[in-house]
TrEMBL record:
Gene3D superfamilies: 3.40.50.12370. PANTHER family: STRESS RESPONSE PROTEIN NHAX, UNIVERSAL STRESS PROTEIN UP12. Residues 1-128 form the UspA domain. It comes from Salegentibacter flavus. Belongs to the universal stress protein A family. It comes from the Bacteria. This is Nucleotide-binding universal stress protein, UspA family.
């Protein structure tokens, strides 16, 4: 994992994501952090000059001995398109984005981050602004009841877990768990998990809960999970792609970072 991309606008949300990314990158040998400032329209020269000055000041603050190198970039236009464009040109391995999460009492909240996760077929690590420290000892992979549609994305999860020596628990929350762990899909998933995650795979738990999100959250709090990983089917090429409701809810409401394996 060599190139990490952080959409950055000097807000508290993006500053928090940068702090997390710095600690994350420290575990990736020779990793580079790429900060991306996206403007809706072409910037005036004075504005661009001011931003460059702010970035240079930021680099002076964070570029100490032993710290991962940081570069910054500018793009104009649509937020998602700009990230996808630089993702290709810089051969980015992972996008790390901050999020403010859902506001209390808002029925259908949408943040720029949650929208991007649904629109872009890219791996993204979402960092809630409320998450103020870095710890990566235990990862929870939340799986559905079907056979995993794109097992190649587990390579990234193995990369992340191996660099931090973090164990990976797997959880399937079901509304009808009578046959949990005994279905053909469960057996196939178990073989896949053992093959891809190797020694970092801990175990696969099954829980009953009408509210899938609450079932995941209960496990996170009970077992002191540091990172939640999900495998959305919004861009599935086999079967029927999902509408991404659970993915949106997770990225909006999770209190810990979320790794979207897409």
């Amino acid at each position: 994992m060599k190139n990490l991309l952080i959409p950055f606008d000097f807000s508290d949300v993006s500053m928090n994501a940068l702090e997390y990314a710095m600690r994350f990158a420290a575990r990736c040998e020779k990793a580079t952090l790429n900060l991306l400032y996206i403007s809706d329209s072409k910037m005036e020269k004075d504005k661009e000059k001011e931003l460059k000055s702010n970035f240079e000041e930021l680099l002076r603050k964070y570029q100490g001995a032993g710290e991962p190198p940081i570069s910054y970039h500018f793009r104009t236009g649509n937020f998602t398109d700009a990230i996808i464009d630089i993702h290709k040109s810089l051969d980015i391995d992972l996008v790390i984005m901050g999020t403010s999460g859902a506001e209390e009492g808002v029925e259908s909240p949408v943040t720029r981050t949650s929208r991007f996760v649904l629109e872009a077929d890219l791996p993204v690590l979402v960092v809630p602004v409320s998450n103020k420290y870095f710890k990566l000892d235990k990862i929870l992979l939340a799986l559905g009841e079907d056979v995993m549609h794109d097992t190649s994305t587990l390579n990234l999860l193995l990369d992340v877990s191996s660099r931090s020596k973090a164990e990976v628990d797997v959880l399937t929350v079901s509304r009808n768990p009578e046959s949990a762990g005994y279905s053909e899909a469960d057996e196939k998933n178990e073989n896949t998990l053992q093959y891809y995650l190797e020694m970092f795979y801990s175990h696969h738990s099954f829980a009953e809960n009408e509210d899938i999100l609450k079932g995941i959250d209960d496990y996170i709090k009970k077992h002191d999970v540091d990172l939640l990983a999900i495998m959305p089917k919004t861009h599935a090429t086999t079967g029927s792609p999902s509408k991404g409701k659970l993915t949106r809810e997770v990225t909006l409401k999770s209190e810990i970072p979320v790794l979207v394996l897409d």
